[in-house]
Amino acid sequence: MKVTTVYLLQLSAFLFGLGLFLHGFFPLSFSSMEKADFQNFPKHIAEVQLDRSQYRAKFSRTTIMLIDALRLDFVQRQESMPHVRKLIENKEACLLKLRVQPPTVTMPRIKALTSGTIPSFIDVILNLGSSEVKTDTFLQQTASSGGKLIFYGDSTWTRMFPNVFSRKGENQDPLFVNDFYEGDKNITKNLVSELKHPDWKMMVLHYLGLDHIGHAEGPFSPKVPGKLKEMDEIVRKIVFEMTRWNANLYLPSLFIVTGDHGMRDTGGHGGSSAPEVTVPLLVVGSNCASTETLYNQIDFAATLSVLLGLPIPASSIGNLIPEMLADLTEEEQLLALVYNGERLLQKLLLEQFDLDQREFFLQHQEGKEMHKEYLKMKQIGDEVNQSLFKRAKLFYLSSAQEMSDLLAKNFVKYDLWSISVGLFLSFLTTIASLSLFLTEKDTLTIDWNSYNIFFILFGTVCLKHLPKKFFQLDFSLCSSGLVGNIIILITITIIRINCKIILSAVKERRTSWIPNMHNIHLYVIFCTVFHVISYASSSFIEEEHQLWYYFGVTLFIMLLLGELRRFKSVSLSTDLSHLQKLHSVVLKYVGLLLSHIFLRRLNQTGDKWLSVPDIGDWFVTEENKMSLSWFFIFTLFLVLVVCGQFSGILTGVLTFTAVLLIYYSRSITGHVTLFSVMKSDSRVSLLLFWVNVLEIAAINYLPIIYRRWILKKYLPQDGKLWTGASITIFSLISCLLHKPHNAILTVACILTCQVVNKSINSILSGTPKIFMIILSHLWIGKMFFFYQGNSNSLASIDLNAGYIGLKSFNMIIVGVFLTINTFGGPLLAVLLMLHHLQSNHKIFLQTCGLFLILPLNFYMAIATGFRNHLFVWTVFSPKLLYEAFNYGLFYVIFTVLGVTWCHKS
């Protein structure tokens, strides 16, 4: 079997191990489907009877207005929402603060708000296709009690709760971020009619326009103040109608305004920065008072349930917000507090916690003693001691908060066996891949006999039954289903094959090129090891771009020094051609280093310096639109020149047309200016652009396919033609999807790879040269990933790029566009690498694959070790998703290339 084929199988085995690991690290569901009722409501404290009739609704109807991506400072600004500020200042409303748990995306946050539970981190992926929620929520409790619920807004709600709302009007494309106004107008139109209907108990409104503006233009967009004033006017309308309701209803009405998550300073959300995880909670119609105390978002479900006289959702692990209990009597407040505290205690008992000597348990018991004394004094008619009430309330709140934090900390149930098996498979595959990397032969013999078959069958039986029998581990791999058995069988097969590969490969070691290693190789190896070790630090993960900037620029300087040493042996004073070449090399590297200084400051990223203004921030301001327009024109001209070296005359003409269409499409959307062209919704220019792209693909790919598959010929130049056309097409698509000021990255990436490749060819030779070309291109891809403004935070993904030219949400198209835009730098660098390496397929696959799986394998171990770390969901988990997706993307590329090369040979 050819080593190339074996290595493709190794990459597949690593992907399988990675999948098992992710399945264990990101379980799909943690929550029970149990529904709460009053059967477990506390009936007494010691010998004192509790009066459950005191636990009753305080409000007749409730309106919940959820403004997507509503940051706390949006409400605090006097000019943004004047009516809201007036309500707060006149004490007609109170402003509270909620802390949102990552991931800060819509679907998990709706779960947290309505159920009081912490969703799984993998819900950030499931957010794209929200499924029905089985977890208990105050919505289902309201419906079960006979109340009618209505909803208007984000269709995520209707997919999550399909049978709850009696009337609904959903925005069918909540992920279509170019809709700033129309969806919100439809919600308000329905709201106006519903305000006149007296038949509903709860109304939920979810406005999306603010979030869409944030994704497209950021929180400091000139569109934000207008959108906030629109929301402020809606609040005014609802508050005005509440006055009429309260005059006709036995109980007053309650109005809640909040956000599902915030918005980071550079736009978007999904991370853990303060503006993303802090949202306002505006309460109108209650006697609560504003406070600076920061409560958890999961506290809302339990608190609202108490105010509405509903059972607290069974899955809720939140505490009660004391300021919102101001409408309850002292006895009612203590009753609600002991009810929630007993629930949390029962949850801890189910988790088998030892409560006897825990501080929170002692506080809860002390609160019950104070509560009992308070009730006794009230029953006998003595003057109630206010200190008893205050102390009981304080003890209840303090103990419940500690219990809530403890439950939240232990809420995640990792599948440790899946993690262990996936990690072991990945580690074993990495060792086998390293052994293959040192293999001299082009073929590897893997023989099969009855012993191997017996080993696989015996191992399958052991892995299925022994862990459960001896270690009491109950996990998905032990399921009796067909899928579980197949997974175990594949696992044992991979283990056996890897062991045979390692034994076979170590007999043939390729070490002949190691003595010829250059200092640059030692530097690259050192940086690779250092980068892998840096994964153990959350700060290094947040600021990973700093490492790649340093590594890359240092590599450029070392290549320049290598070029200078090459010229040192030549008498430059007598050889004018060498002197000219030296000047050319020096000028190239001076330009290269200066350009990278500019690129580094184009988009701030990471965490520490994210708020520092950058060149991109300067370009996107309205007063600098003309400068951005000229810069974009200059960029597109460079794209035309640079791509011209990869194509012929006809392709060049089509590229010129595509470049014009890119600029025109940006001008009609208002991003850049073009004479008197006004903003328009016309998508004709984009349609023509895609026609040009298809024509470029046809005139370049079809002749190659015809020669290869029909004539059974393969010309040496076909590889260059194929990769050259791919680079041109990918560059054009990247320029279309990138923000106008980021389009320069495409040109810079191509020129950087060309300069570095030429220097490596001049300095090195043989296998060390190929090794360095591959690694340098991988490094350059990483640098340009971060130059674009990407980071290891999910909030840095530019969702707006996924909707260029679309009228509605399309999962496949949006996914492809986002992938091309987000990973544009690494993908373009790989295309350039393939263009520069038209042979040595085995070394390409082995080197690329090995330097992808080595860091990822180590990081999987790091993430496992830090699974209980404070930053596991804010730092380590997002990075794991990025790396896993990156590997999956490159796996597809390697598979396509490997199959093509194997077929060609």
Note down, in words, how this protein is organized.
It is built from 33 helices and 10 strands. With 905 residues, the chain is mostly helical. The strands form 2 sheets. An 8-stranded mixed beta sheet has the order 6-5-7-3-8-9-4-10, with helices on both faces. The longest helix is centred in the last third of the chain and has 33 residues. It starts with a helix and ends with a helix. 45% of the residues are buried.
Instruction: Tell me about the largest β-sheet.
Output: 8 strands, mixed
Number of contiguous helices: 33
* Proportion of strand residues: 5-15%
Main sheet: strand order: 6-5-7-3-8-9-4-10
Mean pLDDT level: 85
Poorly predicted tracts of residues:
none
Describe the structure in brief:
With 905 residues, the protein is mostly helical. It is built from 33 helices and ten strands. Helices cover 60% and strands 5% of the residues.
Record the SSE blueprint:
Elements: H1 3-25, E1 44-45, E2 48-49, E3 62-67, H2 72-76, H3 82-89, E4 93-99, H4 106-115, H5 123-126, H6 138-144, E5 149-154, H7 156-160, E6 167-171, H8 182-194, E7 202-207, H9 209-217, H10 223-248, E8 254-258, H11 274-277, E9 278-284, E10 294-296, H12 299-307, H13 330-350, H14 359-379, H15 386-409, H16 416-437, H17 450-471, H18 482-505, H19 519-534, H20 538-542, H21 544-568, H22 576-600, H23 615-619, H24 625-644, H25 649-668, H26 684-710, H27 718-737, H28 744-763, H29 766-787, H30 811-822, H31 824-836, H32 841-865, H33 872-904
Parallel strand pairs: 3-7, 3-8, 4-10, 5-6, 5-7
Antiparallel strand pairs: 1-2, 4-9, 8-9
Helix pairs in contact: 1-16, 1-32, 1-33, 4-12, 9-10, 13-14, 13-15, 14-15, 16-18, 16-32, 17-18, 19-21, 19-32, 21-22, 21-28, 21-29, 22-28, 24-25, 24-27, 24-28, 25-26, 25-27, 26-27, 27-31, 28-29, 28-31, 29-31, 29-32, 32-33
